[in-house]
């Protein structure tokens, strides 16, 4: 049931404020200042966290790496499941392994879990389906409470995965004595603001719909971001490829000069994710290199960022949000751009060609 929406993807994007609230309530009751996770996650003794997933779930891990480093002082290793399972990763009894999967049935992710299991202290998972194979084979499975996701393009599962990973990172920081009780409580309070900010981001839909008309004419699109916005750029490019079939690539903005700048011409739309944070100036200087070559830039930023950036051909204003939760809010324009570009092109948004919702074979 699409609940009055044209597509499951539209319904699932619209559900995000409610989903984020449900997941928050499940782990951090509205009045409590703590985060209630299952007992016994060995964060305090861990010397390394290994995160493994595929596709969008992998990008959620990539964002979470910044969080575990910044808020928990925990070393993180990341890999996509299809690579991890055939490597000889150096694992040990003080490592934690964390697998992220919406379906909980992705063949490569499950195989990666089985590959790691005998060598690590604990196997954790972040899943949407609590009865799934990945959940059952984990020591601790953390559900994201997103409800069924039908659209092949993952949307609400991504933002809910990020929220649960954010909570895990904060909890790890507290238990490792890396984050003070005050800093922990401040970050939890920021997480509580997510439903409101995500709703504000969803309100930009009409503007995004109009902008996507031009994007639908493009043959290729480049996405740029730095820090936590780099995985967001990757997610934006993946969404666009999946449902509009436009070739899209994402680069860390600092890599531009190392090759992709050769692609810039008047036809290539370049979408830049850059909230006004500590990396803003760096990203904007890369954006200016694109503009100096007549590249068609769309800057996604907040009021301060847009004011500081000066004249840009296209821009989209996001709410001003705390750095910690920004990647979850900026996921919304990444999704809406792909959705509306695909609608303009008339592709099948919920059932894109060649793709399955759950990849249960290698
Ligand atoms: O069910 P999983 O989260 O394990 O699925 C992983 C990927 O197959 C999935 O995220 C895929 O990349 C999506 N179609 C992205 O929109």
UniProtKB/TrEMBL annotation:
Reaction catalysed by this enzyme: D-fructose 6-phosphate + L-glutamine = D-glucosamine 6-phosphate + L-glutamate
Superkingdom classification of source: Bacteria
EC number: 2.6.1.16
Subcellular localization: Cytoplasm
Keywords, ordered alphabetically: Aminotransferase, Cytoplasm, Glutamine amidotransferase, Repeat, Transferase
Record-annotated membrane-spanning stretches: none
Main location class: cytoplasm
GO MF term set: carbohydrate derivative binding; glutamine-fructose-6-phosphate transaminase (isomerizing) activity
GO CC annotation terms, alphabetical: cytosol
Assembly and oligomerization: Homodimer.
Protein name: Glutamine--fructose-6-phosphate aminotransferase [isomerizing]
Lineage: Bacteria, Pseudomonadati, Pseudomonadota, Alphaproteobacteria, Rhodobacterales
Gene, per the UniProt record: glmS
Section covered of the full-length record: 244 to 605 of 605
